[in-house]
Amino acid sequence: MLITDEAKEAENVKLLTEMMGDHSDREVARRVLRKYEGDVEKAATAMLEGERGDDDQSHQLWSSVSQMDVVSHKQPSVPSIVRPNTPVVDLTGDDDRDLQRAMKESMSTLQQPAPVFGPSERPADPNWAMVLSNQEGNHEANYLQNLERAIEASLEHSNANDSDALEPFPIEQQLRRDGCPVVLRPSIHTMCYAAAILQGLFYVPQVRERMASWRPTVMSGMLEVNVPTSGPDFTLWALSEIFTHMDLARLCDLNVDKHLCAFNIEPWTSLTNPLGELSRKFYTRLVATLEKAFVDQFVLDGSPPPNSRLFHFLYGDSAGDRAEVLQETSVVPIDINPGGGGSDANDLIGRLSAQLSKPQDAPEKQSVIVEPSEVVAFQLSKPSASYLNNTSTSAAAKPFVYPRSIYLDQFLKQNVAFAEAKRRQQHETFSNVQKLILHKKSMTHFNGKDTLKDLRSTIYYYEHVADDKGDPERTSSIKKTTEKLKSILEAVESEIKVTDQMIHKMREEALTLLDCPELKQVRYDLRVVFMHDGLYGRKHLYCYVRDKGQWWKIADSLIEQVTEESVLRDTTGLHLGAGPYLLLYSRYRPDENERLTSLPWPREIEDDVKECNKAFLAQLPPDLVKDIKEEHMPSSQNSTFSLSAQLTDPERRNDGMDVS
């Protein structure tokens, strides 16, 4: 067995992470260093080439979450049998007492309990520990400690009567004022996560605008069309009703129970059902239905479809001037806890870049986006057991960082050559940084010793300890030696300072190489952040949405304005391995507020909203509504639908949102 010098390894890991910059991962550095048997230079070169130290690295970049590798846990090795120490007995003598003592010791040995196979119960000897006893800790102990912490947090909420029953707002608080957004509140708490996604899609401008223009399928020659009751049109009609009410209703909370049957929702029954995976499945099915319906509408109308994709972007492996293995997806899985913890680069662009880096076994290929979409969803996933097995404390845990805007230009097929040239330049810069760091180490360390520390100690000795014994010549020698040593120290410290400045400058240049005007054309803005605090129930889910330039926090029983900083830096659920689990970005549009001012919703649904508003306002105290005037809501102007067919319902019920 190879016994690792933990102190030296920790020093080398620190050196490696300094070479790689702030974006490096300490666990990755440790694995790569061990793979190359402690050779820092080889490990640094390998990391610059994309090495992560894994035995089997997967290079499927846009892989579905359902196809993610299952983390295998190594079985504990059976410890060797440790026989009890017995005193040495001299059997060469003739003394009967020695013979009797020998037989006694032999019998006591035979009476020892049978060996037990399994982990030793002896306290760990820190001198032979593979990791320092005050670091990392025992994984089983951390598992139980974190599990106990999660149970206690859950019991605290349960004991506080944290019911999942729908608690209606007082009617006076339901009035929508000052541009307040709308919260969708189903009575069935297992459907809340799906309602949150429907609610979030409304605040994606491209989706809202496309939904306002959609109409049910009208076959040629038909004069009347019934309200859809099945199929994709049923789903889109239900979503159209929800969106119209969210845009025009006077209520700030809407019950959507009777509309959810149109969406085939898998219930969220407990924490054993991963919320992120349920949301991904629901979102994927829904947007696939929406995209097909939008394309079909253009085909039936005889008009050309829009130039850009809405939800699904096309990607493939780029080989030269062509792209191979073209596929499409609407959700990009992002590992927010790579390597099982301890990541120093836990941000969206960093993870995305890591997933899109060239595989070492096929450097001529690189995954690229061939046709971008208007909307991109990122599922933030982590291994299911990573929280309970996490050995770090909650204070040391780092939240996942996602920016207000991202640029995907460097991942587009047409920019492959340019972006790759920038990455090569970045690689060369980091290689030079590596050389400077090694040069700095050569000035400060030799044979594992801190030479600067020794030099300062020597100077202190000559200044404060050395005895000249009253000898003028010795006094002069001590003074000259002290001055010479100080001169050497000053020169070394000066060179170290210059080296540090060069390292900092080169790192800054390397990190901004891809931040250039040529790669900042395709901008995506953050629209919705879905959050989970780590516990089960409707009150433990909420989302942030951006509407008309303002961020809002929407929870089950709370709607409030928040700052952008609070949206981007929310650490809720971090101690329970939760937090943000789904992000929605869409293409930047400078005129989006103007385009969303007056949308052509179906006239039939607008009429329902008017009736619901009247019924709701009639229930409010007169002094609360005396200054409220029902605005004129524009009728649908979609002539293709309105003039060619009239929507009818045999029962013609008022089936707007529930205002009771």
From TrEMBL:
* Pfam families the record matches: UCH
Supply the Gene3D superfamilies for this chain.
Cysteine proteinases (3.90.70.10)
Biased composition annotated in UniProt, kind: Polar residues: 634-647
Q: Alphabetically, which GO biological process terms does the record hold?
A: protein deubiquitination
Q: Which CDD domains does the protein's record reference?
A: CUE
GO terms (molecular function) for this protein are:
cysteine-type deubiquitinase activity
Q: Where is this region: Disordered?
A: 74-93, 628-660
Compositional bias per record (Basic and acidic residues), positions renumbered to this chain: 649-660
Matching PROSITE patterns, A to Z? Answer: USP_3
Q: Which segments of the protein form a coiled coil according to its record?
A: none
Where does the USP domain lie?
182-588
**Name listed for the protein in its UniProt record:** USP domain-containing protein
